Structure formats: structure tokens, C-alpha cells
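Late entry, evening session. Most of the bench is empty. Finally got around to the prediction I had been postponing all week. Sequence below, unchanged from the version circulated by S.P.
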Amino acid sequence: MIGTILCWAGIEILGSLVYLGGGSPATLLQIRFAFASFLFFLTILLNKKLSFKIARKDWKSLGVMSLLLAAHLFFFWVGLKKIVSIVAMLGIYFTYPSLMAVTSSLLLKEKFTKARKVSLLLGTLGMLFTIGFLPKLKFGVVGGTGVIYLFLAVATWIGYLLISQKEAKKYSPPVMLFYNFLISTLLFLLLQSPIKTLSELSPAVFKYLLALGVFSTYLAYLFLQKAIKYLGATSLGIIHLSKTTFSIILAYLVLHQSATPFQLLGIALVLSSILVLSKDA
């Protein structure tokens, strides 16, 4: 899961650069997923232990997974463009670990131990400190429709992760992800014509999309599915709260931006959350 978080550490920045370069959400999704689909195809093709074969009874689940993933990413990237405030975007998006824990407990009867509850609380508080929402309780300027899109992104992401948890027991991550991404790419082609997409591909935008396709998509989702298989969706969600911590560390290492005392408190809370969760494993 740490590999996924590292690959996603700068995803919002790369996406914003694509938008600033004239790329639309449809272009971002089409090219990003096309890159990843091709890489998963090559992964299966070059690995003799993997097969493209999917049992007939599993196509329905695979199709639902792909629809949820495509919907999630559409809502997320449109929401990011409309909401204006990155703080608000992160604050809304990272409600998903808590909502997924409730969903798993109610619908799947998953046992949620005291340690996991404490870990979730510490991680959520830490995340809110690291993004700057706490202690001021301010999100900044927020676009109203962006909030709706992001909550829809949260709902579809929870659905995708919970179905992935079930299907990960049957298929290797590259195989499952190849079909998820292939179906999603075909759906994204309905958003705008390939001609318009190509017209938005300046050298700079292409460079950012290539980074998104390789690091923030192919590698990130490969690590993600392996984490779901061994950790489960709810534990993965709790660990994902540490994403903002890694973003701050990355900003310090690359941009030499120092963290505020409250962000350091947030980092400490997030690390404590992971420690508590590891004790419960």
C-alpha cells in the first residue's frame, strides 16, 4: 500500500498541470487509461504464469467493477476541476475510509475491532491536520457542484474496493486490472471524440499524462490490488489516510517546503494510526 501512496503522492499536482496545459478531464482519463491498459496487456503477455481467461460467471462482477472505477475517476477528476480548493477536495475524498468501515460492518458484517477504530480516528485527525483543515476548520473557497461530484467519487470508490476484495481471491491483479482499465478506456472514449483529445495533447500535457499513466495508474493500481488481497479494503482505507503525509514529505524533499507545527502533529497522528493498525494485524 505504501507503493500506491507514493505513486499517488503528486497525482493532484499532475492533474492540475494537465488542466493548466489545456487538457480536459476526458483527455486525462482517455490517455491515462490507454497507457495503463497497454502496460497491463504487456504484463500478462510477457508473463507465462498469467492468462487472459476469465470465467463466464465472473464477467458480471468484473463489468460492475469497471463501471464503478470509470464512474469514480470521472467524478473525481471533474470534481477536482470544479471544487477549486485542494483542502476541501482532500477533506471530502478522505471520508471514504470511515464510510467504507460503516458499509463493511453493516452490509458485510465485517468485524471492526477497537484497535482499528482507534487507528481510523487517529488517521482521520492526522489527515485533517496535514491538509490544514484543523485547527482553523476552514476549507477555503469551495465550488458547490464539485462537492457533489466528490461525494459521488467516494461512493463509487467504496463500491469498487469492496468488490475488488472479493475478486482479488480469484484473479491475479494484472489480469483483473487489464479488463477494468480496458472497459473503462472504452467508456471514456464516449466522453469526447479522439480528434478533440489529440488536439489537446501538447508535448507538456503528454508528458504529464505519461507520468499519470505509468506511475499514478499502472504501478499505483498494481500495488493497490495486491494490498487489498492481503490487507482487506477497510485496512487499506485507513493506511491510505497517510497519503497527505507522504505529499508533505515529497514537497519538503523536492520543493524544500517546510511543514507547519500542526502539519507535523498530523504526521505524528497518522504514523501512530499505522502503528496501532499494525498491532491489530
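Two things to note before I forget:
The two ends are 15 Å apart (CA to CA).
The chain has one domain: 2-280.
Will write this up properly tomorrow.
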